[in-house]
Amino acid sequence: MEKQMTLEANAFTAKGFTAQMKRISYRLAAPQRMLRRYYAYVLGEEVSKERARAMTEAQAAFFAVTLPADYPLVLRALACAWFVVAIRKLNTHPSPPEGRELN
Questions:
Q1: How many CB atoms lie within 10 A of CB 69?
Q2: pLDDT digits over 60-78, tens only?
Q3: Rounded distance between C-alpha atoms, residue 90 and residue 55, angstroms
């Protein structure tokens, strides 16, 4: 005997799940939006998401180079390389042109 089960998706449940996931992703992205607004305030110009992410990575790499006092030389060299790569990545993300809206 073969048992078959039919699953039907309730449209209301699917829409509710989608709306809930959008709310969760919006709240999880709040720190990124706050950093982007902070960078825009400090620089006096609009900052894109990619540029804000590159700036944050460059700051993290800088702290990885400067803060730990007891790291081995190999880890310090890797941190310096990461910092150089992060700075170059920052230079490849220019600010958007005037009048362009950012999300």
A1: 5
A2: 999 999 987 788 889 999 9
A3: 6
Helices (H), 1-103: 11-28, 30-43, 49-66, 73-91
The residue count for the chain: 103
Q: What is the DSSP letter of 29?
A: T
Backbone angles phi and psi of 59, in degrees to 5: -65, -40
Give the integer Cα–Cα distance in Å for 45 and 102.
Answer: 11
Q: Is the dihedral of CA 67, 72, 76, 78 positive or negative?
A: negative
Calpha distance 15→82 (Å, rounded): 43
DSSP conformation class of 79: H
Identify the CA nearest to 52 among candidates 4, 11, 102.
102
Alpha-carbon Rg of the chain, whole angstroms?
A: 22
Q: Is the pTM of this model over 0.70?
A: no
